[in-house]
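Practice problem 4.
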């Protein structure tokens, strides 16, 4: 099962209609195709459609394929989309320049349909591999919940709130969906933490040894996911697991990172995690939930100092929807994460938006 979408989408970029027609004939039976006939339209199409792969010509007027690739890799919304150059420029120097700009492959014209199909399939299989890895890690998380009762529905609520924040902050459907998938892995490292610490009925900070072991769950999580991974999704998962307790002022852990050194997806997940933890009445170290107004006050205190102002502003703008999420998934009524994870990015976005709509109708 492909967790990203039903069928891969490929953006074909070439200024020659005949070349686009040929690529269409080769690929149309297997993939969803989008088209662009210039560098400018390619950049716009990449953001609009968020394809799984881009096949890019080099020799185009006004903006050549090299410049298109450079700009794609500069934009955080499109940096992770694989690019294959399909061009008549076949010299070694041409290929080296393409790879230096971030392309993953290079196919020379005239194209050989079986070779092109094989190259495309090879790179798209990497996405399916990531899907299998994520499914395995989520299974591991579900097993971990057996010894950590406080996480009942916590990971789902964090994932949904993270998705809401990401969309409000301008993430496209696919990037928000990927963050939704990996957000539940933020605490996967708790698998390596002793039960007596996870369920400790007090302030762990007052016991330095226990607090140090709890902090290490970020490193355990990074080790479980793997530092050597290269795919965009698994890099995002690694960043979320390792860095979700870092703070802008350097007071977080495990690395004491500051400012822009902290991956933004980790900060979004961190805020979602904080909100849900404060509103959760079942935490063993606290009697009951923190009142909503107090939660808002604490978030406002950290705005701009420990947490990015634009994320906190997004929280306040979405507060009613976030509270609807908290009511929709209480701890005593566990909802399987795969009720959501099997959806396409579009359907997931629609389902999550409906949570707030239903809550308003029944209020």
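Answer key:
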């Amino acid at each position: 099962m492909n967790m990203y979408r039903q069928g891969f989408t490929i953006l074909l970029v070439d200024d020659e209609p005949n070349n686009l027609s040929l690529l269409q004939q080769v690929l149309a039976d297997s993939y969803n195709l989008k088209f662009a006939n210039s560098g400018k339209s390619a950049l716009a199409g990449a953001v609009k459609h968020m394809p799984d792969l881009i096949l890019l010509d080099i020799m185009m007027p006004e903006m050549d394929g090299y410049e298109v690739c450079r700009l794609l890799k500069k934009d955080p919304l499109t940096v992770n989309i694989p690019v294959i150059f399909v061009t008549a420029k076949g010299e070694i120097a041409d290929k080296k320049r393409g790879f230096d700009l971030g392309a993953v492959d290079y196919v020379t014209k005239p194209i050989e349909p079986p070779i092109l199909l094989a190259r495309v399939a090879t790179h798209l299989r990497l996405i399916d591999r990531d899907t299998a890895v994520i499914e395995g890690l989520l299974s591991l998380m579900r097993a971990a919940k057996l010894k950590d009762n406080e996480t009942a529905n916590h990971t789902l609520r964090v994932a949904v709130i993270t998705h809401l924040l990401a969309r409000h902050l301008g993430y496209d459907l696919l990037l928000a969906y990927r963050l939704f998938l990996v957000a539940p892995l933020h605490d996967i490292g708790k698998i390596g933490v002793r039960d007596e610490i996870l369920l400790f009925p007090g302030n762990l900070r007052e016991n330095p040894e226990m607090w140090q072991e709890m902090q290490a769950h970020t490193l355990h999580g990074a080790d479980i996911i793997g530092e050597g991974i290269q795919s965009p999704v698994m890099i995002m998962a690694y960043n979320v697991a390792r860095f979700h307790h870092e703070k802008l002022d350097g007071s977080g852990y495990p690395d004491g990172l500051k400012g822009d050194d902290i991956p933004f997806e980790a900060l979004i997940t961190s805020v979602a995690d904080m909100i849900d933890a404060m509103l959760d009445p079942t935490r063993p170290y606290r009697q009951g939930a923190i009142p909503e107004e107090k939660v808002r006050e604490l978030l406002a205190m950290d705005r701009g100092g420990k947490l990015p102002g634009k994320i906190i502003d997004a929280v306040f703008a979405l507060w009613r929807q976030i509270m609807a999420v908290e009511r929709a998934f209480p701890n005593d009524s566990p909802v399987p994460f795969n009720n959501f994870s099997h959806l396409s990015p579009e359907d997931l976005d629609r389902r999550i938006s409906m949570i707030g709509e239903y809550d308003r109708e029944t209020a």
